Amino acid sequence: MAEAQRTPTVIADGVHITYTVHGGHPGGRGGATAALGRMLNRRPAPAGRKVHAVRGVSFVAHRGEAIGLIGSNGSGKSTLLKAIAGLQPVDRGAIHTQGQPSLLGVNAALMDDLTGERNVILGGLAMGMSRTEIRERYDGIVDFSGINEKDDAISRPMRTYSSGMGARLRFSIAAARSHDVLLIDEALSTGDARFRRRSQRRIDELRAEAGTVFLVSHSNSTITETCERALWLEAGTLRMDGPAKEVVAAYEEFTARPGTEKANK
């Protein structure tokens, strides 16, 4: 194995993550209706439900790797990414990172009422780029996103964008600079095949620039085309860690079993 691949960038050591879910169940007397009732009657809010989202997960990621995270809905993939990015506290165990991880960089910073152009500037600043760097990379970011191919969408407010257009612009901003660790949650499931190919090439470039890429996607083909390694999380536990094609094949066999879909709801 090459030296670059043997340099650890992320170490997860027996990580446990829990969080609390507040509110009632959909369809019942819960959510906003229940909250309003408590306010009018001055009743205290009920205790939240504890969710043990990640259970004792351990792995080591190396510089130059692209690692896919797969698993059923609610298996802990996005929670684990947030923990690696430092946005979600760990209850037990530890996560060690080299450099600064970026969770697709700019989701929280972009504002729906601002134009795409203003959001490119805002997102670039949020990722630590100078205004000069943003000006130099602006045309490339817009061209990469492809949102201007049919009309001048970059000059319209982002609230007028489809979810796919917004995701493509976010990825384009985040991919405009190199990252020690780039964490991508579902961004590549949007857009046409041409955009996905551009995204995969950019991920390869980021890896070549000595970064590490984590990718969460419900598209197994995206995982096998983009990543050489995959982690399979199920009910918060790490079921398998290995070559992407082998892990995806095992996961697909698991999901094809009778009763699996019902059990995972």
From TrEMBL:
GO molecular function: ATP binding
Coiled coil location: none
Keywords for this protein: ATP-binding, Nucleotide-binding, Transport
The keyword ATP-binding is assigned to this record: yes
Annotated SMART domains: AAA
Domain ABC transporter: 37-260
Pfam families, per the entry: ABC_tran (PF00005)
Family note: Belongs to the ABC transporter superfamily.
Protein name (database record): ABC transporter ATP-binding protein
